[in-house]
């Protein structure tokens, strides 16, 4: 009799223990892996990204989490080193078993880790402006891309200053592909390239480059310089009194060169950014206030910090729309109608289902002689249309490839 | 006239490359050439010079004194490192590579943690001047002059002063020098400190023209090592001629085909020199003289 009672009890207990997780709400944390360069050549521009993610996480957790589940961050310092990205990407996906990864500053690092995300069918957010063209179902890009930054910036510059353009760009995939974009857009608008020079990463001496530019006599210079060593260009060009207007998709918005160098070395620099801390809207001011409340010593809130902050909220929207599921297929399915949006500090951001890139408000930031910023122009709701136009449609198939204007997807 | 403008432009570029090579390499050359220590923390002594001199400028110290302070601070730091870490390793030259590499990483990361990602620059002093189509920075001409001045000062120091003679004696035959009453430990410390101070000088001089970040030392390292490898162990017969050759190659190729070509040309030159002159330019000269 007693034996029977015990066995009944144990059967009941077993049943209950199975029922438990179904009845009670799931409160296990949602894990977000964060791989960003917190040391090395890129640290200056990327520490703010980690802080942006931490701020969003705190706000969301204080307000009850994502679908009632708190966020837990798993943060690794990738040291501006591509092999670290591969190592830590394996670790967060295999050992830490995170639900989503926010990773990467340089395009070289993104291309280093992307195959690993594909291999484990993970989901990664790349919260950085870049040269565009990644058509990969495992990736969501919240940064701005060339059709958002260059097709706004270059026509403006060519109309204002003239049609003869000189490009100096960092010599790796980002700089090379961005320069290709510049070349194409300048040509489409009836301009000419006065010259192009690619600078190896880590180079800090620009005397000769400055002279090459002066020799070519361009109307303005497009600077696509990456990393702290290369930003020495501005100081040296200023000292040699080059005095040409400049245009950029990366500088100012990423490395806040206007705060770091003595005026007027960045005078008449124009950059298209989707956010910088000077953006003068109530949402932006409130964001800056909350950011500084949590990180009082933050030197500057750049556009990638805002992208990273917004990415956490976009992910929250996605998971909640997927009824709390963090499975990649469920989460991606929420993008299908193109209505997955978030009111970010810059304005409204929506994820495009075809390319899984994000629409942005683009601000034209102009650096004055005293290095203050004004915004001569603003473009609302600029869509990342290029990938969709050339035939990338992640709702139908997933090539997991990167396309450029000279390397288009195969015609179906 | 056009030709003269181009000639001046090339001379300026050559001088600029030469100054950068000499100033970044001479500290390394003193420590490697005289003491046989391969100092991978060379960039961090440059960093020290740059940060100290820039902080001093921010506090209102005039630039020349600020640069001297930066150099002095790096020199003192160098002597401390020599006494604490390098001294037990003189007989284990390969271990000094690992030890100095460790110092380099600790200093870079420590600077990042303590002082943050960047320090505001002090701005390049002086204005610019124009020759023909091009405008040039006056300060870079000052840098060229400083490079030549540094070489002259070093030559005078090693040939005309008592410290120079004792240092050379200590390096050549340490036990005989010791038997003759030379405090060889002190000489080692001072020589290492001198090398570090020269690195600090390079940092202080280039600080106004560059981004001040904890990793800035790294951007000097390639040029410094390349110059020392091509030049060989002797500063005057090695570093100076190596800087002339490499500066010529780098300026020529960069003006012709851009920065990438300049870097490739410089590294190719090193490969060729190592193949033909395994002991560098100075090794060749000294061997022929002997």
Automatic annotation (TrEMBL), chain B:
<feature type="transmembrane region" description="Helical">
    <location>
        <begin position="220"/>
        <end position="248"/>
    </location>
</feature>
<feature type="transmembrane region" description="Helical">
    <location>
        <begin position="98"/>
        <end position="117"/>
    </location>
</feature>
<protein>
    <submittedName>
        <fullName>Branched-chain amino acid ABC transporter permease</fullName>
    </submittedName>
</protein>
<feature type="transmembrane region" description="Helical">
    <location>
        <begin position="186"/>
        <end position="208"/>
    </location>
</feature>
<feature type="transmembrane region" description="Helical">
    <location>
        <begin position="260"/>
        <end position="277"/>
    </location>
</feature>
<dbReference type="Pfam" id="PF02653">
    <property type="entry name" value="BPD_transp_2"/>
</dbReference>
<keyword id="KW-0029">Amino-acid transport</keyword>
<feature type="transmembrane region" description="Helical">
    <location>
        <begin position="138"/>
        <end position="158"/>
    </location>
</feature>
<feature type="transmembrane region" description="Helical">
    <location>
        <begin position="61"/>
        <end position="86"/>
    </location>
</feature>
<keyword id="KW-0812">Transmembrane</keyword>
<comment type="similarity">
    <text>Belongs to the binding-protein-dependent transport system permease family. LivHM subfamily.</text>
</comment>
<feature type="transmembrane region" description="Helical">
    <location>
        <begin position="20"/>
        <end position="41"/>
    </location>
</feature>
<dbReference type="InterPro" id="IPR001851">
    <property type="entry name" value="ABC_transp_permease"/>
</dbReference>
<keyword id="KW-0472">Membrane</keyword>
<keyword id="KW-1133">Transmembrane helix</keyword>
<keyword id="KW-0813">Transport</keyword>
<dbReference type="InterPro" id="IPR052157">
    <property type="entry name" value="BCAA_transport_permease"/>
</dbReference>
<keyword id="KW-1003">Cell membrane</keyword>
């Amino acid at each position: 009799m007693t034996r029977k009672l015990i066995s009944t009890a144990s059967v009941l207990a077993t049943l209950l223990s199975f029922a438990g997780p179904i009845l009670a709400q799931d409160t296990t944390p949602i894990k977000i892996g964060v791989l960003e360069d917190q040391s090395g050549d890129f640290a200056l521009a990327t520490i703010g990204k980690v802080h942006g993610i931490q701020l969003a996480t705190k706000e969301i957790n204080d307000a009850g989490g994502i679908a009632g589940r708190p966020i837990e961050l798993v943060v690794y310092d990738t040291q501006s080193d591509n092999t670290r990205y591969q190592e830590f990407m394996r670790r967060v996906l295999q050992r830490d078993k995170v639900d989503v990864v926010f990773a990467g500053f340089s395009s070289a690092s993104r291309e280093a880790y992307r195959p690993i995300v594909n291999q484990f069918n993970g989901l990664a957010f790349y919260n950085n402006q870049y040269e565009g063209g990644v058509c990969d179902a495992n990736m969501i890009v919240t940064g701005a891309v060339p059709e958002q930054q260059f097709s706004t910036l270059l026509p403006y510059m060519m109309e204002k200053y003239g049609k003869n353009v000189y490009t100096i760009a960092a010599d790796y995939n980002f700089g090379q592909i961005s320069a290709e974009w510049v070349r194409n857009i300048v040509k489409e608008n009836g301009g000419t390239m006065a010259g192009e020079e690619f600078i190896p990463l880590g180079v800090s001496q620009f005397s000769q480059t400055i002279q090459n530019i002066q020799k070519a006599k361009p109307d303005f210079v497009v600077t696509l310089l990456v990393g702290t060593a290369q930003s020495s260009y501005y100081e040296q060009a200023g000292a040699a009194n080059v005095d040409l207007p400049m245009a950029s998709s990366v500088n100012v918005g990423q490395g806040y060169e206007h705060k770091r160098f003595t005026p007027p070395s960045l005078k008449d620099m124009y950059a298209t950014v989707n956010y910088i801390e000077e953006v003068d809207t109530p949402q932006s001011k409130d964001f800056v206030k909350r950011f500084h409340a949590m990180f009082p010593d933050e030197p500057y809130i750049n556009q990638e910090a805002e992208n990273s902050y917004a990415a956490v909220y976009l992910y929250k929207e996605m998971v909640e729309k997927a009824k709390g599921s963090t499975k990649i297929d469920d989460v991606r399915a929420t993008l299908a109608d193109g209505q997955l949006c978030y009111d970010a500090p810059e304005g409204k951001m929506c994820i495009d289902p075809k390319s899984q890139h994000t629409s942005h408000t683009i601000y034209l930031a102009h650096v004055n002689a005293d290095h203050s910023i004004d915004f001569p122009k603003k473009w609302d709701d600029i869509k990342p249309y290029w990938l969709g136009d050339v035939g990338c449609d992640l709702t139908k198939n997933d090539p997991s490839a990167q396309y450029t204007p000279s390397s288009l997807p195969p015609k179906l | 006239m056009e030709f003269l403008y181009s000639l001046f432009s090339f001379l300026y570029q050559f001088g600029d490359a030469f100054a950068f090579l000499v100033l970044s390499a001479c500290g390394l050359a003193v420590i490697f050439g005289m003491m046989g220590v391969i100092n991978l923390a060379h960039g961090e002594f440059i960093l020290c010079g740059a940060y100290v001199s820039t902080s001093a400028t921010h506090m209102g110290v005039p630039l020349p004194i600020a640069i001297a302070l930066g150099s002095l601070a790096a020199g003192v730091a160098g002597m401390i490192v020599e006494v604490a870490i390098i001294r037990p390793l003189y007989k284990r030259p390969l271990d000094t590579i690992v030890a100095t590499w460790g110092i380099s990483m600790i200093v870079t990361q420590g600077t990042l943690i303590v002082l943050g990602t960047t320090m505001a620059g002090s701005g390049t002093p002086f204005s610019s001047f124009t020759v023909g189509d091009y405008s040039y920075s006056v300060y870079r001409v000052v840098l060229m002059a400083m490079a030549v001045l540094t070489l002259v000062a070093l030559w005078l120091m090693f040939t005309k002063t008592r410290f120079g003679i004792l240092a050379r004696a200590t390096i050549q035959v340490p036990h005989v020098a010791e038997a003759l009453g030379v405090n060889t430990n002190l000489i080692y410390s001072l020589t290492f400190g001198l090398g570090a101070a020269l690195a600090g000088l390079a940092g202080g001089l280039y600080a106004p023209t560059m981004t001040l970040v904890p990793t800035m030392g790294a951007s000097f390292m390639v040029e410094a090592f390349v110059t020392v490898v091509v030049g060989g162990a002797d500063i005057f017969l090695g570093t100076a001629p190596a800087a002339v050759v490499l500066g010529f190659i780098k300026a020529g190729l960069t003006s012709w085909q851009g920065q990438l070509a300049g870097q490739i040309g410089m590294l190719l030159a090193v490969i060729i020199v190592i193949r033909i002159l395994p002991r560098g330019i100075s090794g060749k000269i000294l061997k022929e003289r002997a």
